[in-house]
Write a structure and sequence with these properties.
alpha/beta, 6-stranded mixed β-sheet, 20% strand, disordered N terminus
Length: 291
């Protein structure tokens, strides 16, 4: 980690694009839905092209954009494409009921939402109960714009940002029950990554299995970004696929929900992330309706 990274002069997305130039054709992101993995070069190019498409569809710097996706690959592409266009990703936990997802989207003022199957139907329903006017989906989904349609509008280079600008807008469960914003600045993100460089020690020799987005997105985002920035291959898997995926990909580590039991025959280093606690009562799941 350089001093410029810690001061916020480089955003995480800028650093990822620079990392891609260094690692080139090495596999960066593996998803069971794609015929071939994304190399680091392809990952950076897709992020930059998707950013141009998002800007063409109306994303402006500092716009908050919802990310409501069911797997790590879509999460990486969505969050970094939004950041590369100057926007602020707002992770919406896949574990939330539609009413709470809608409430979060309305509260943060998101006008755009990125999703993927099998969450697309819930995403459309949440969008209808919030300010969201555009839903973009990885893969086909009724009433949604395909993510692939973003990729023909040129490419954007990730913009610089001031250290204390908002970089990520997760929502956490308050002691009283409702969700509340807990934004992270670029300095906060750099600090999280600096701590992981010491504690996690993921390198370009690692293959990291990543289960679907977990919790409010803070720790999950940091660990996935740490892996990619250090040249590791991130493999998007379902929680029930861990043992088979570990053997198939010769994995060395995994990002899992806290408390998940993993087969001891797979010697994986586990990075456990706390899940988002459910609301205390049904009355706390009502959306914030736009006026």
């Amino acid at each position: 980690m350089t001093s410029s990274s810690l001061s916020g002069e480089l955003t995480v997305t800028q650093r990822l694009v620079e990392t891609a130039a260094r690692y080139g054709c090495r596999p960066a992101l593996v998803t069971e839905h794609a015929a071939e993995p994304y190399s680091f070069t392809e990952l950076a190019a897709t992020i930059r092209r998707a950013a141009a498409g998002l800007a063409w569809r109306g994303l402006r710097p500092r716009d908050v954009i919802g990310v409501y996706v069911p797997d790590a690959a879509a999460y990486v592409l969505a969050c970094h494409a939004i950041s590369a266009a100057g926007g602020i990703p707002c992770p919406v936990s896949p574990q939330l009921p539609i009413a709470e997802a809608a409430g979060q989207l309305a509260d943060c003022g998101a006008r755009m939402l990125l999703t993927a199957q099998p969450l697309a139907t819930a995403a459309i329903a949440a969008a209808d109960q919030s300010w969201v006017r555009q839903v973009i989906s990885f893969g086909e989904a009724p009433s949604a714009t395909p993510f692939s349609s973003l990729l023909g509008m040129g490419a954007l280079h990730p913009p610089a940002a001031r250290p204390h600008d908002l970089a990520l807008l997760p929502y956490v469960r308050s002691p009283a029950g409702p969700l509340q914003p807990a934004g992270l600045t670029h300095v906060d993100m750099a600090t999280e990554l600096a701590a992981l460089n010491t504690a996690a020690e993921i390198s370009d020799e690692d293959v990291v299995l990543a289960t679907p987005p977990i919790g409010d997105g803070t720790s999950y985002t940091a660990i996935v970004d740490h892996a990619l920035l250090n040249g590791a291959t991130v493999v998007a898997v379902g929680t029930d696929e861990l043992p088979a995926a570990a053997a198939r990909h010769q994995a060395t580590a995994a990002i899992v929900p806290f408390g998940l039991k993993v087969d001891d025959s797979n010697p994986l280093r586990l990075f456990a992330v706390a899940t988002l606690t459910p609301p205390a009562s049904c009355s706390q799941t009502q959306p914030v309706w736009p006026g």
